Amino acid sequence: MNYVELNIPLHATENVEEKNDILVALLSDYPFESFMTENGVLKAYIPQDKLVDCMGEVDSVLHDVGVLDATYIEIESKDWNAVWEAEFKSVDVDGICTIRAPFSPAPESGMDVIIMPKMSFGTGHHATTCLMISEIMKLQLAGKTGADVGSGTGVLSIVAVKAGAKQVDAVDIDTWAYENCLENTAANGVEQSIKVLLGDVTALTGNKYDFVLANINRNILLNDMESYAKMLNEGGDLVMSGILERDIDSVVNKAQECGLKFVHSTLRNGWAAILCEKI
User: Fold this and answer.
1) Quick check: 185 and 120 in contact, CB under 8 A?
2) What is the DSSP letter of 270?
3) What's the number of CA atoms in the CB half-sphere (13 Å) around residue 204?
4) What are the backbone dihedrals phi and psi of residue 131, each rounded to the nearest 5 degrees, phi first?
């Protein structure tokens, strides 16, 4: 499969970090599978066949936020994998969890999570993944069951199981993410505790869980909130991210409409995580 790399220069005259996060949030509404920022350029990766259907909309979004010098570069999947592996660096999440590639040294202390460097979202490098992990580590998960919606690499499911969860159902609509999640659960020795599914939230219809994890984007969170609420047992926790700080109110309001109680929100680099509870 061929991929396209969208290159967006981040100019020094702007608030580079804020502009980067806003662009990632906007582009996450489209089928981009991964983001990387290096040397002042935001690089967004999307399958070539999927770009055909949304390129006009993407260009309009970029134009609306003042990006007039973005470029598209066609790359081969195998070239991307080589670059990704070369660039992958271990991530320390608040000193409690280390996310690393199998060729990186294991941490001396704290939770050790191995992620095979591929194109699925959720390597720990993005602020939202770190926010989610921090929230997961605060929950009392011993013996509990959960769902990870939009699971990507499966990193959140793996963290939850290593934190004591009995069983987690991990679901993602992307085939690449599904395969990578299978690979990562095996690499961490937790494949017996994580059921990997290909599909959207409807693949979990009828199931009940003690907690639900959803690190996706604002539009999907709002659209699927009722499903999350229905899946939760009474007293269950819903942890959400993939949204900017400015989106907190709209997501919390929707959660409350669906019978969920807002507990708190946390911030990191302009991004937010929200914890709600099933009343």
Assistant:
1) no
2) T
3) 31
4) -60, -45
Rounded to the nearest angstrom, the gap between the alpha carbon of residue 260 and the centroid of all alpha carbons in its chain is 22
- The four Cα atoms 126, 128, 133, 136 give a dihedral, to 10 degrees, of -170
Cα separation, 137 vs 58, whole angstroms? 36
Q: What Cα–Cα distance (Å) separates residue 100 from each residue in 70, 87, 106?
A: 31, 12, 8
Query: pLDDT for 171-201, tens place per residue?
Result: 998 888 899 999 999 999 999 999 999 999 9
Q: Which two tokens stand for residue 75?
A: 């790359």
Packing angle of the helix pair 175-187, 155-162 (nearest 10 deg) = 30
CA 137 from centre of chain: 16
Question: Apex CA 41: angle with CA 39 and CA 47, to 5°?
Answer: 125
Distance of CA 265 to the CA centre of its chain: 17
pTM: 0.78
**Dihedral over alpha carbons 112, 25, 18, 89 (to 10 degrees):** 30
pLDDT in tens, 215-261: 998 889 999 999 999 999 999 999 999 888 989 999 999 999 999 99
Report the distance separating Cα 147 and Cα 171, nearest Å: 8
Cβ-based neighbour number of residue 105 at 10 Å: 8
Give the sign of the dihedral formed by CA 191, CA 207, CA 204, CA 229: negative
